[in-house]
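Appendix B: complex inputs.
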Amino acid sequence: MTTKLLLAAALTLTIAAQPDAARRLLDAKCLGCHGAAQMSGLDLRTPDSLRKGGNRGPSVLPGNAAGSLLFQAVSHAGPLKMPPGKQPLSPAEQRILKEWIDSGAALPASAATPAPAWWAFRPPVRPRIPASPAHPIDALLPAHPPEASQLTLVRRAYFDLHGLPPTPAQVDEFLHDDSPAAWPNLIDKLLASPRYGERWGRYWLDLVRYADTAGFETDHFYINAWRYRDYVIAAFNADKPYTEFVQEQIAADEIWPMSLDLEGTSKLPAAKAENLRRRIATGLFTLGSFPIEYTYYGDQFRAEWRAEAVDVIGSAFLGLTLACARCHDHKFDPLPQRDYYRLTALFAGSTEREIPLGSLFDVQTSSRNFPLLAHAEALKQQVRRARGAERDKLLRELGEAFLRAPSRPPTANVLAPDDAVHPTHILIRGDFKNKGEPVQPGFLSALHPGAAIQEPLRRKALAQWLTHPANPLLARVMVNRIWQGHFGHGIVRTPNDFGRQGELPTHPELLDLLATEFAANRWSIKSLHRLIMTSRAYRATSQLDPTPDPDNRSLSRMSRRRLDADALRDSALAVAGLLNLKMGGVGVIPKLSSEELLAARMPNLWPAHPDPAEHHRRSIYLQMKRSLTLPMLQVFDAPDPAASCARRESSTVAPQALALLNSEFSQQVAAAFAARLEKEAPADPIPHAWRLAFGRPPSPEERATGAAYLARNSLPRLCLLILNMSEFLYVD
Ligand code: HEC
Ligand code: HEC
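Resulting structure:
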């Protein structure tokens, strides 16, 4: 062959290779959004769809790369920049697209479904762990910092798993246990305590924007929201597999049958009672932040209610900012607006209903006593009209009548089938009056397709799609949250956004190790705690000098953390001997100071619980009113339940010191703490005070300073000081 011929052959080869190279590049970098998802109307899978272009018209002018929207977008020559986010195409990749368009833009159809370009959409892969005796987590982390002291560890474990300090006896028990299994045994013991569900259930409630009222101007009361709160605590305590926990919240009523008959007795069969308990989980969709002004049962109500449902699914279960696709295609992630409305359609045909938590027989039995209630109601009217001496007599009668009257039979607010299944449309700009094309129920096109939806069980299909093994996000997002609960930060530091606007994982292999272990261990959250807490990484000291990496992205030590609002309040009550460990029930309304009451919009709707012992329940059992966060909790960054809170802030601001020094709460706690010391260690209160608050005896200097302080100040004053010390506020 002559040189000329060779050259010509090479040229033909190059030209023939261009479409293939372009195809591979578009597959890898664009199809995640311009394949099935058709973001902005553009589908780059076939020659025809390429020629058609997107919402802006044709994006490729064959022979003219510079004039083609597609090339302008990838070369950042105009306002549109593709792919969106922080990783533009390399110059070599841009050149491939330029030469391909300039030479005619011929394109083979996309053959296979390409692997998703974005890391979070690819399935987690268990990393290869070097065969070493190291714990699998430590095998993936280069640094091996020294271990924290046993005292630090026992406090860290109690605060992490219970949100409470260990008592002196609990500290001693651990410090005196020399067995090699002392540490794993401690973890097991803490996980078995009901305090665990209260601590970790709280994080979940933050995440799903739990509150007892609806917020906005009217802030109406959700009388049964607390049942969902108690369900969550019980689920964590029972170590319910995470997939089951998710399924129950989305569709317990559609997955676990309610039609079981009474077992020849008047009582509910155990299986039905269990399924009723599961069904309380769907209360998740009945307690959102919601203005009552919406035209009830109209288009607007449905639009807002369904959008709220989809938003919480995006943040809590998927770690995606789905809410951004309500008014337009998501600008950064492969979430077209159509997908958003396909998800809302999964909630069409569902509505909120208040159901009795017993058998029909129970309901009928209690209705037998209703004349007594009617009598009490009649007396109430009379008392309202009565004056002077007569009123007192009537009041007593009224009291007696109410004591005899039946209580309301227990109910729960849950999801149930609606009377009609209204068709779903894309809402242009999210506006319920501006209906676009109709859509069928479906899932996110960027993820696995999911099974066909068996009507009318739409939410069941959603629950199964979310918990399907092919969903790469469910496990990753949840293990990241658990890691965050132990280390202060997630491996992905934007726990509710695993998309392109979020942060990349600092340790992707570690994240995938945890995700695959989680799924392999029947989605047991408690096993995950065990795995994490038995690593050296968890047992590491938080005190390295000099601090190698202030932000600790390298995980080269433990991060020191301030107690969150709930843990701080609960710990102060515990140290003072005031904490009331009663579990469950309707949210308790604690006392507010007179200034705090002034700030409440409707102070008459703040009836403090008549029993003072109730005011000292754990914070998770206090009523959460959207229009008024308890000032003591708010100043320490309690979340705003208007939206999902993935991680509590840990600010340091002056009002915190003021609240801890001057609030009625602190004064009361300090007084009780002092009274406790006087009772338990009257001769020498200082060592006991230190052991209760810090788990350790005071150093000789601390003893001397404490004694000198006490010579001039009262014991309650010293107690107040202790509650303000950073050792009390921070966990090492
Ligand atoms: C993560 C999702 C995502 C990826 C990946 C992505 N795009 Fe886009 N693309 C979008 C979105 C969203 C828009 C609409 C943006 C807007 O209107 O502001 C868009 C719009 C476009 C448009 C304009 C379509 C029209 O007519 O409105 C072109 C052309 C385009 N993308 C090309 C590409 C190319 C080429 C790639 C791969 C190199 C790519 N995109 C990768 C999300 C993506
Ligand atoms: C309530 C409706 C609505 C929601 C929800 C919404 N947007 Fe938008 N957004 C708009 C409108 C309207 C525009 C202007 C028209 C357009 O670009 O589609 C816009 C434009 C944008 C633009 C382009 C702005 C520019 O300068 O070109 C970005 C980026 C964007 N939105 C991001 C987001 C993100 C991120 C979220 C979620 C956090 C979000 N949007 C949620 C209505 C909304």
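The two ends are 77 Å apart (CA to CA).
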